[in-house]
Design a protein that fits this description.
globular; EcsC; ABC transporter-associated protein EcsC
């Protein structure tokens, strides 16, 4: 392994502990408050959010109209790929911040419009990041992996532990679409961002909240995406080295 890869491996060990850490008292209280807020959101709005998540997820897994950037040249190091992904994340974050501020300043209707727009930005970033790390997003298996990263980044602590285990074992097991609990997936994502995005609808602070919330959500997605692919790439490399040594 290169010095950079060894440094990344140490970072990943700390991140993995963070992923498997039990929920703190503050997080448990926050979850209860979030659940209470959830009951205050009109059922019509909840149905709209849920349907949006479902449709865009189906497009992500089964659609052929998602365009991605061109594949990188072969032989790029992990350090090179990390730099390219960080640059791409900055581009998408800028778009998300402007979009969040614009829709947040436009009142309730535009505030609600931010939800599917932001979801689209996140999905597009995930596809581009996968390509930059050398994975073929045309393959259903890779789209499923993207879906799991999405779940990992935007779900409760309890659900995150299970998803992380799946990602950690990804290349040693085969996962099928039928194994995904779609209802759970939609609820976890919707509940995770509902409270944040609902504040965006408040007159007077919507623009500021929208910009800040979108920045934070993209930053979180970037961290989780990079670490998931780093972990996978290093695991594949170690497996390859092990096979070579056995021969």
């Amino acid at each position: 392994m290169t010095p950079y890869e060894r440094t990344v491996q140490k970072e990943l060990m700390k991140w993995q502990k963070k992923m498997l850490k039990k929920s703190s008292f503050v997080n448990r209280i926050s979850k209860r408050m979030q659940t209470k807020v959830q009951t205050m959101i009109p059922e019509k709005v909840q149905r709209m959010l849920t349907e949006t998540i479902k449709r865009m997820t189906q497009v992500m897994l089964f659609g052929s109209n998602i365009t991605t950037i061109k594949k990188c040249e072969e032989g790029l190091s992990l350090a090179d790929r990390d730099i390219l992904v960080e640059q791409k994340l900055k581009e998408y974050t800028k778009v998300a911040v402007v979009e969040g501020a614009g829709t947040g300043a436009g009142g309730i209707m535009l505030g609600l419009a931010d939800f599917p727009l932001l979801l689209g930005i996140k999905i597009k970033f995930l596809f581009d990041a996968a390509t930059l790390y050398g994975f073929d997003t045309k393959q259903k298996e890779e789209r499923l992996f993207i879906l799991h990263i999405f779940q990992l980044a935007f779900s409760s602590d309890e659900h995150r532990h299970r998803v992380f285990q799946t990602i950690d074992e990804w290349d040693s097991k085969k996962y099928e679409i039928e194994e995904i609990d779609w209802e759970k997936y939609q609820i976890e994502y919707r509940d995770y961002i509902d409270f944040i995005k609902m504040l965006q609808l408040v007159p007077g602070i919507g623009a500021v909240v929208g910009a800040y919330a979108n920045y934070q959500l993209l930053d979180r997605l970037g961290e989780y995406t990079m670490n998931c692919y780093r972990m996978r790439i290093l695991k594949q490399k170690m497996l390859h080295i092990g096979k070579v040594n056995d021969e």
